[in-house]
Specification:
Length: 388
């Protein structure tokens, strides 16, 4: 097998690749032919850039069933959006709940706020399969609990959180809910109105199939966040305070318009294919991959068996081989790209029992073929045989 090294990408949970062809073209066309700065002056180019940014906002609002595109605020990525949400809603003295599956883009902002003595926070434990402990959650609320933060789909084991149930519990206790959709936007159905989501952070470069440097935050109408970044918006320039109107209130500075042009094409691709078809394809690939890997002696899998319970993210450990070494062999000998280690989610690994070594994470995407999985299976089988 080694002789015929390929170039196979199993790291879509880090960033999706390849992108649909129009994504590349749209970013390039924007830079070569448009390049106006949206919202700044009234030149034809600026108006065209403005229109394109609005179309991207509207496409995302459609995808997430948001009632109004102005409630979609662009950000650099999910990390930026999560910081915007957390720092925009928290008041000194507040208490925050978060699940053990959260990424460092949640854990670290909370850690910083705690260290500064501004908030207290409680982690909701999760099972070995990444399921949130609902009994613990019910009892964890305090009089000043303002926010519950939930990772919609784990970037370690793929497990999907029951967000409707979690949101119902939090709302009954008077807390807001911030959903981290970094791994679910574009691959799982999200209806912010039906699920009564208060805040939804997403990134553009994963399931939404757009370029890096794009992402955003949905903010429910009626919920006002404090701006955490202030500056030019091209509107109300006479004011020395950030405008109140959305999205300008939370969207200071020049936007990544070429990236947003690409993101629009990513969302259009999802709309054309249909989210259901994308989800079904990913579930089929996940089930195929998991089934194959479960046949290799010495491999332990850390992702649910039932594909309907998870996104296409699969974690494994191989007996007698360090995860980093396994990842290195997969790439250097077989041309297979994956991610190894803690995946910026140390608490999730503690829950799964894979801390501190972490796991090897395999994440197929819409464009992965079954024959790619067959090749990956052959490679892992060969490595496992050599190690036994
Ligand atoms: C669950 C989760 N949240 C947040 C992030 C941060 O996303 P970004 O790097 O796009 O800011 C990631 C990225 O890996 C993630 O998997």
């Amino acid at each position: 097998m080694k002789g015929n090294k390929r170039n196979l990408y199993f790291d879509n949970a880090a960033t999706s690749w390849p992108k649909p062809e129009p994504v590349y073209g749209a970013a390039e066309i924007f830079m070569r032919q448009m390049s106006g700065n949206p919202g700044r002056t009234g030149s034809t180019r600026t108006i065209e850039a403005d229109r394109l940014v609005y179309q991207t906002r509207a496409a995302l609002a459609r995808l997430f069933h948001a009632p109004d595109p102005s409630r979609i605020v662009f950000a650099l990525n999910a990390t930026d959006a999560l910081n915007m949400a957390i720092k925009g809603i928290i008041e000194p003295g507040d208490h925050v709940l978060f699940t053990a599956m959260e990424h460092n883009s949640v854990l670290r902002p909370l850690g910083g706020l705690k260290k500064a003595g501004l908030i207290s926070a409680t982690m909701i434990p999760c099972s070995k399969e990444g399921a949130t402990d609902l009994d613990f959650l019910e009892k964890a609320f305090k009089p000043r609990t303002r926010l519950l933060i939930v990772n919609h789909a784990s970037n370690v084991c793929g497990t999907i959180a029951p967000i409707d149930e979690l949101i119902a519990i939090a709302h009954r206790r008077g807390a807001f809910v911030l959903v981290d959709a970094a791994q679910s936007a574009g691959v799982l159905p999200i209806d912010v109105q039906a699920s009564q989501i208060d805040l939804l952070a997403f990134t553009g470069h994963k399931g939404l199939l757009g370029p890096a440097g794009t992402g955003g935050l949905y903010v429910r109408p009626g919920l006002d966040l404090k701006p955490w970044r202030e500056g030019g918006t091209g509107s109300f320039s006479e004011m020395d305070l950030q405008p109140e109107s959305m999205p300008e209130r939370l969207e200071a500075g020049t936007l990544n318009s070429p990236g947003l042009a690409g993101l629009l094409e990513g969302v259009k691709f999802i709309e054309e294919m249909g989210l259901d078809q994308i989800r079904n394809r990913e579930m089929e690939l996940y089930a195929y991959l998991r089934d194959k890997l479960s046949r290799i002696p010495g491999i332990e899998l850390y992702s649910p068996e039932d594909p309907s319970r998870c996104a296409a993210v699969l974690s494994l450990v191989m007996k007698d081989i360090d995860c980093g070494e396994l990842g290195y062999i997969l790439e250097s000998a077989y041309g297979i790209l994956c991610r190894t280690g803690l995946h910026c989610a140390p608490m999730a690994h503690r829950a799964l029992g894979t801390f501190p070594e972490g796991t090897v994470r395999l994440s197929p995407g819409y464009f992965t073929r079954k024959e790619d999985i067959d090749y990956l299976y052959g490679a892992l089988e060969e490595i496992a045989a050599l190690k036994s």
